[in-house]
Amino acid sequence: MAARELLEGALGLAVVLAVSGGVALLLALTQRWHGRLTLDGLEGVQKAHSRPTARVGGVALLAGPVALLGVVYASAHGAGHGAVLLNRLCVAGLPAFAAGLAEDLTKRVGVLFRLLATMASGLLACAITGVALTRLDIAGIDPLLHSWWLALPLTAFCVGGVANSIKMGNSTAVVIPPPVLKELGIGAGQHLTLDTTADGKIVLTPKRKYVLADMIAQCDLKAAPPADLALWDVARPVGGEVI
Do 108 and 222 fall within a single domain? Predict the structure, then answer.
């Protein structure tokens, strides 16, 4: 039974990855037809890509689970508890998905509306799955969370906050506009060193990638070998050496 469940889980994951990947590839290949509505420009503080990029990747992410649900409900075994839960989560996510898609297509949906739509998805997920935050490990608060009138809005608030937050450890992320990246000759994922000057300026310097030739060039080929290594030249073999 465990082996069968493991196999079904692997097949389900394969369906999600295949469909989501296929839809994402299709969106990329057909962007000349839908790019007028979906492509994102390069101007703006939060623009990190180097060429116009489609903003509707969420369509591909949703297509995978929806395809899996179709396969599950069409199978002879029918939908189990996991499929029912996935179905409810997909339904609950529709308000957030619709708000995000509307923003991607029209560029006119405000941040507040999208935040409220995400919170609505969290509230809907609580209502149709019966799952909510009931513990925060805060003295005096946890007993109150046993009441749905407080647990539901708190869960919706947390879902909205997590979905709209970006945090990298204990650091603050810095977004560098593509024109600046091009001028510095750096790309996404490249490591930089950050320094500050006495007058309060921030200096970003690309970290140089060294190759073996650079390291050899720094060596003095005429230097005498270290004394502790010179003993190896006069040492007698003891047997069992591997050369």
Answer: no
Same-domain pairing of 107 and 158: yes
Residue that wins the pLDDT comparison between 13 and 48: 13
Task: Give the three-class secondary structure for 195.
Answer: strand
Strands (E), 1-59: 39-40, 53-54
Cα–Cα distance for residue pair 97/233, rounded to 1 Å = 71
- Give residue 105's identity as a one-letter amino acid code: L
**30 lies in a domain?**
yes
Residues 102 and 6 in one domain: yes
pLDDT over 80 (residue 154) = yes
| 8-state DSSP, 86 | H
Provide DSSP, 143-181: GGGGSHHHHHHHHHHHHHHHHT---BTTB---PPPHHHH
Mean pLDDT (the chain, rounded): 80
What is the model's pTM?
Answer: 0.60
Nearby residues of 166 by Cβ (< 8 Å), 6 or more positions away: 173
In a domain, 171, yes or no: no
* Same domain as 182, residue 159: no
Residue 183 pLDDT > 50, yes or no? yes
Q: Does residue 55 form part of some domain?
A: yes
Nearest-angstrom CA–CA distance, 10 and 16:
10
In terms of phi and psi (left: phi > 0; alpha: psi -120 to 50; beta: otherwise), the region of 44 is: left
Q: Is position 168 within any domain?
A: no
111 and 213 belong to one structural domain: no
> Do 71 and 151 reside in the same domain of the chain?
yes
